[in-house]
Design a protein that fits this description.
With 484 residues, this protein is mainly α. The protein is 62% helix and 4% strand. The chain is elongated and about 100 Å long.
Amino acid sequence: MTSSQLDKKYEAWSALFSEPMSELVQRYTASVNFDRRLWRADIQGSLAHADMLAAQGIITAQDLAGIQRGMAQITREIESGAFEWKLALEDVHLNIEARLTQLVGDAGKRLHTGRSRNDQVATDLRLWLRGEIDGLLELLSGLQVALLGVAEQHVETILPGFTHLQVAQPVSFAHHLLAYVEMFSRDAARLVEVRRRVNQLPLGSAALAGTTYSLDRERVARALGMVDGQGQACVCQNSLDAVSDRDFAIEFTAAASLCMVHVSRLSEELILWMSQNFAFIRIADRFTTGSSIMPQKKNPDVPELARGKTGRVVGHLMGLLTLMKGQPLAYNKDNQEDKEPLFDTVDTLRDTLRIFTDMIGGERDSGTGARSGGLQVNAEAMQAAARKGYATATDLADYLVKKGLPFRDAHETVARAVRAAQQQGCDLADLPLTALQGFHPGIDADVYEALTLRGSLAARATLGGTAPDQVRAQIGRHRARLAV
Ligand code: ARG
């Protein structure tokens, strides 16, 4: 069969159709321009299916060998860029199958026995996504390690902690960064959980109802690594569900959205901290750009874009949920629209995590493995900011509680002291002892210890608090978890 005969054959589907598709409809319905990125998973799934068909005696060993040979050739063609993708063949599945048939004849035509594109595409997508999740998990570990590296240097670096973006209490910069490590560790845990449900085999469900051939679905699942922790094959248990639900893609995108939201919060802080008014940090020039009009500017483009791209990923989540909501069972062509949002979610999250790891931890030297050029911290500016805004007012209240005052009364007393300090334009610690004693006679000279930033930090030694020992314990726990 010549290649143009083959195209016509697939284009016309079968003797049932009396007219070809218009060019516009062809473009409208085709997915090959984007779903070709599933090609490796498609071939992997086909090989596992063919191997099982042969083992079950549904195709011959000779047919299997032909399919394997043809797929090896197609792999080389795609890898080298020689493969000719055809819009007329609609999607990645038909493109590969048509080429296979061209290469190996009838063996290629037997591949689709007991299978439909409906279970095929669901399988491909799951296989592809599983691989991407594994890559994302590594990147998430890398980002956590980068944050830990900076945190380790700044256990004793103090900055103002905020609530309502108003100075609240002093915290260790390491403690602040470790909050993000917690978030990213939960993001990773969510992906691990999602991966379990992604890693289940739809193949064998055929178009929707199962198939008349005696397939061994568990064998296919095992061949594709779709097994649980005990090595048991993970096979979708209802054929209608298997071909039609994309909840696995939706929950992945939900997990990705949350991760982007965490990145976005971090971005917002990096942007604030970089501004001249804070001047807490600097990021390397390669993550910033200048202004075309204002020569003095260095703009935090990377964090800003990450914040912006978060909207795009959250949008994909909404898109996928909406895609699903009105579909009757089983497969509908609507589902072809699952791919671009899913692909873009993976691409966006992957690139974001990579760039953030470099921006925070520094770029890795491929030779020595050492990182350089990460986040630069201006500890003096942080400390100076923590001195403003009466960040140790709670400490004075706690001091009075220790002297026997009920907390509510202590709160009121300190409010008066803060007001007096404000009127004099000084910090609480700048008020003379006699002045402080005017607010409460129980105040002694040791009050100044409570009013220092260091004293304030050290006093917050509850589990998970910002006291240096607690922060070091957090770092140790994360290092053990990440085995770094
Ligand atoms: N390109 C299709 C998709 O992405 C493959 C499945 C097509 N199945 C069908 N019955 N038209 O969903």
